[in-house]
Amino acid sequence: MKSNTKEKEHSSQISEKVSDSDFRKVAELVKSLAGINLTDGKQELVSARLAKRLRALHLNSIGEYLIFVREQKSQDELVTMLDAISTNLTSFWRESDHFDYVVEKALPKMVQKGQTTIRAWSAGCSTGEEPYGLGMLIHGNLPNPGRFDFKILATDLSTKVLDTAKRGRYGEDRVKSIPPELLNKYMTREKHDGAFIYSVESVIRNLISFNRLNLMESWPMKGPFDLIFCRNVMIYFDKPTQTKLIHRYFDLLRSGGTLFVGHSESLAGIQNPFKYIRPTIYEKP
Fold first, then answer.
1. Is 49 tagged catalytic?
2. Is 254 a catalytic residue?
3. What is the CATH number for 205?
4. Quick one: average pLDDT of 84-111?
């Protein structure tokens, strides 16, 4: 009971010390490191998420926390801070018209021109539903998939969600949107603690490489990619950052390659060299 009382007292002290000035310092640091644009409307969210870190580290203010982050040589807490602040929301077959386009247009075009090497990038892969879904979809629609060199790079800023993605295990409620024929072919079901858990089969897991990547930093991969999915990521960036990112994606795409952005996003107002295909789908000429 005493421990709980101390935690409550500490939590109260933290909430009282989250000032506008401290929030601006956090926002500036996050913007400089990860390009994430934290508006004033995010102050309550940031305060709540960082309060958990303050309790864990026995610190009394965000000011103290920022000093701790900057002085830590390993940068582990910096990664933890970005994990806490970044929002990760995803699901299997989210914005499914993009997957329809891959099967109906992009993939047949690659096959018809005799292309046997296929590379895709899920930028902002979160807990893995996007790259696993894409892997199932493409593998399941390739004629004689064994003769294709098909790989997916899946990256995210958050180490926490990447750990979940690498496990490739999902509850029954999470897999309901996967087409039944792909679910039955590429996932195994087992009962665990009274609930069904679905695990991604190795034939799909082996296609995907999960890595942490800060989109604002240098990129080790050289491409070229045929498909880049960067969906519901750019909404956290300002226009100059979005413009820079779009051009970097363009450079890594193969000619004829496709960029997919989220339904809440658009390249409208961003000067870019892409060919417009339809809303949220763009092609490199």
1. yes
2. no
3. 3.40.50.150
4. 88
- Which residues have a Cβ under 8 Å from the Cβ of 85 and sit 6 or more positions away? 26, 30, 36, 38, 46, 49, 50
Q: Which of 49, 169, 174, 205 is catalytic?
A: 49
H or E stretch covering 165: helix 159-167
Residues 6+ apart with CB under 8 A from 257: 224, 225, 226, 227, 228, 283, 284
Helix (H) or strand (E) holding 52, with range, is helix 43-57
159 lies in the same domain as 217: yes
pLDDT range class, residue 17, cuts 50, 70, 90: very low
User: How many structural domains does the chain have?
Assistant: 2
d(CA 133, CA 128): 8
Q: Which of 249, 247, 268 is nearest to 259 (CA)?
A: 249
Task: Give Dmax (Cα) for the chain.
Answer: 70
Q: Choose, from 22, 83, 94, 156, the residue flagged as catalytic.
A: 156
pLDDT band at 89 (very low <50, low <70, confident <90, very high): low
pTM: 0.80
| Per-residue pLDDT tens digits for 158-167 | 888 999 999 9
pLDDT of residue 88: 63
Alpha-carbon gap, residue 263 to 47, rounded angstroms: 28
Q: What are phi and psi of 196, to 5 degrees?
A: -85, 135
Q: State whether residue 280 is helix, strand or coil.
A: coil
